[in-house]
UniProtKB/TrEMBL annotation:
It comes from the Bacteria. This is Homoserine O-acetyltransferase. The active site is at S135 (nucleophile), D295, H324. PANTHER family: HOMOSERINE O-ACETYLTRANSFERASE. It comes from Arachidicoccus rhizosphaerae. Residues 40-329 form the AB hydrolase-1 domain. It is found in: Cytoplasm. It is an enzyme of class 2 (transferase). GO terms for biological process: homoserine metabolic process; methionine biosynthetic process. One of its GO terms (cellular component) is cytoplasm. It catalyses: L-homoserine + acetyl-CoA = O-acetyl-L-homoserine + CoA. Its EC number is 2.3.1.31. GO terms for molecular function: homoserine O-acetyltransferase activity.
Length: 346
């Protein structure tokens, strides 16, 4: 595994019209590019993940996994705006000499792909054998497959959509409102909005799982409540929500969380392309689409829609008690589908 920084020192123009004099991407690679340069696997990460794909997708990326560094050259770039090494809100704004904070420009999904295209050229890669990503990662993958239809041989978008739904936007807006309600959010300091982000994460979790998942895993009271009077007992579901907020707060910042949720909301592959259906029809890569029956954030109808408009796309909806989080946890089922998809058919 190699962790590297790509520094792009020429200006790029974002969809908003903002011109950035430069940007940088933190990216991680596993394995070696072969002589034919036809073993590239490009992994796209989700909202709060990093470029270290083997850490958050250990069931799919790693030695003797379906994407094996012994056979593949695996690349994962940290998306712009994220906390993990790429250009982000705590970087210095060249116009002011101080961190961007609230003034960090919006990177749409299309803008993110523009930065990845620069990295691809820097690495001397022409064809990408396979692109894969779940959730916000799948959004980036679809964007790139439309921007450059001949670039990918195979794509596997998981638990994602062609345009972020009003439901998804409402959930993200509620999370941003939680951050905005933090009395520290207005300050221009690195830890501004920290407690608000904990609440935002709690809101997000409700869309990552569902009623059934909580009913199976978070029943009753926390172990610390055992034997205490009823007015001192705390529900396991409550401690779980608080724990997840605290856990994220130890590794992320509110500015990145806020910015990336806005980036997700910008997702619309049909923007300035004649509509979503027309845009999807331009994809040339062999396509395997995977959804999850219990996903309430990106429900199966969204993956079925993709399959109806991407030529010859294959679609599978898997069963999972984990809802949207199934794209991270149901790696055995996902691996089987990927292996079957990639096995030559005679």
């Amino acid at each position: 595994m190699d962790q590297l920084i790509y520094q792009h020192s020429e200006p790029i123009t974002l969809e908003s019209g903002v011109v950035l004099p430069s940007f940088h991407l933190q990216y991680t690679t596993y394995g070696t590019l072969n002589e034919r340069k036809d073993n590239v696997v490009w992994v796209f990460h989700a909202l709060t993940a990093s470029s270290e794909a083997a850490d958050w997708w250990p069931g799919l990326v790693g030695d003797q996994k379906v994407f094996d560094p012994q056979n593949h050259f695996i690349i994962c770039a940290n998306m712009p705006g994220s906390h993990y090494g790429s250009s982000y809100p705590l970087d210095t704004d060249p116009d002011t000499g101080a961190p961007y904070y609230h003034d960090f420009p919006l990177f749409t999904l299309r803008d993110m792909v523009l930065t990845y295209q620069k990295l691809r050229a820097h690495l001397g890669i022409d064809k990408i054998w396979l692109g894969i990503g779940g959730s916000m990662g799948g959004m980036q993958l679809l964007e790139w497959a439309i921007m450059e239809p001949a670039r990918f041989e195979n794509i596997i978008p998981i638990g994602t959509n062609a345009k972020h739904s009003p439901w998804g936007v409402a959930l993200n807006a509620s999370q941003r409102m939680a951050i905005e309600s933090d009395c520290t959010w207005a300050s221009r300091t690195a830890d501004a909005g920290h407690n608000g982000m904990k609440v935002a994460r709690s809101i997000a979790l409700l869309s990552y799982r569902d009623y059934t998942a909580y009913n199976k895993t978070q029943k009753g009271f926390s172990p610390e409540s055992e034997g205490k009077p009823v007015d001192q007992q705390v529900f396991r579901a409550e401690t779980y929500q608080r724990y997840q907020g605290e856990k994220l707060a130890k590794r992320f910042n509110a500015f990145s969380y806020y910015a990336l949720s806005r980036s997700m909301d910008s997702h619309d592959v049909g923007r300035n392309r004649g509509g979503v259906e027309k845009a999807l029809q331009t994809i040339e890569a062999r396509t395997l689409i995977i959804g999850i029956f219990t996903d309430i954030l990106f429900p199966p109808d969204e993956q079925l829609f993709l399959s109806q408009h991407i030529k010859d796309a294959e679609v599978h909806i898997i069963n999972s008690m984990y809802g949207h989080d199934g794209f991270l946890l149901e790696f055995e089922a996902i691996e089987k589908l990927i292996t079957r998809f990639l096995t030559p058919k005679f």
